[in-house]
């Protein structure tokens, strides 16, 4: 995650959840803030610290970290989806459509706005992928820790699947159609 998206997640998640839930939901904003700091900021800080002071360890574990991350996402998404499979079957089309539109617009506007700001193609692609693939796992973790109903994690789990499919397709398309070297 970029510094801007990390800061946005830490500040906005508790605030928006408390203000825009659509119905009365008891929200522990301080608890959400603390959990968000644990899930978003702490790993970034630990990673930066390890990268700065333990480069040998980082070089050793780096090859195995992507598969571990993918497996973790798979287990968390699978758990959220399995607990709510009947709800997904009844309203899944709307959740999938909303999630796909959310991520597609993130990919599109992330790229367009960064190009409008004068960033090169490679940086714009990176920002597009970052915006389009915002961390749905944060939503699953927060929903599981702070809301008793397992259905609250379903949109995040579906969202994670959608952004993985759309992000992979977009990255593959860009790799095949436009060189990845810096361009203006």
TrEMBL record:
The record's GO CC annotations read:
chloroplast envelope; membrane
Transmembrane residues, as ranges?
A: 31-50, 57-82, 94-113
Where does this protein have coiled-coil stretches?
Answer: none
Report whether Transmembrane shows up as a keyword of the record: yes
Q: Where is the signal peptide?
A: none
What is its subcellular localisation? Membrane; Plastid, Chloroplast envelope
Q: Which UniProt keywords apply?
A: Membrane, Transmembrane, Transmembrane helix
Q: How does it sit in the membrane?
A: Multi-pass membrane protein
Q: Is this entry keyworded Transcription regulation?
A: no
Protein family (similarity comment) = Belongs to the bile acid:sodium symporter (BASS) (TC 2.A.28) family.
Q: What is this protein called?
A: Sodium/metabolite cotransporter BASS1
Organism equals Pyrus ussuriensis x Pyrus communis
């Amino acid at each position: 995650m970029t510094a801007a998206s990390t800061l946005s997640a830490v500040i906005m998640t508790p605030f928006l959840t408390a203000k825009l839930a659509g119905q009365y939901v008891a929200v522990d904003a301080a608890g959400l803030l603390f959990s968000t700091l644990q899930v978003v900021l702490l790993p970034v800080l630990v990673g930066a610290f390890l990268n700065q002071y333990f480069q040998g360890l980082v070089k050793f574990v780096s090859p195995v970290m992507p598969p571990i991350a993918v497996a973790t996402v798979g287990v968390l998404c699978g758990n959220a989806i399995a607990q709510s499979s009947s709800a997904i079957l009844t309203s899944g089309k709307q959740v999938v459509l909303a999630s796909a539109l959310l991520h597609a617009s993130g990919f599109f506007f992330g790229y367009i706005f960064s190009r409008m700001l004068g960033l090169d193609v490679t940086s714009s692609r990176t920002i597009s992928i970052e915006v389009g693939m915002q961390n749905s796992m944060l939503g699953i973790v927060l929903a599981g820790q702070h809301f008793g109903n397992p259905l609250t994690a379903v949109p995040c789990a579906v969202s994670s699947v959608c952004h993985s499919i759309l992000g992979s397709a977009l990255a593959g398309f860009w790799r095949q159609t436009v060189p990845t070297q810096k361009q203006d």
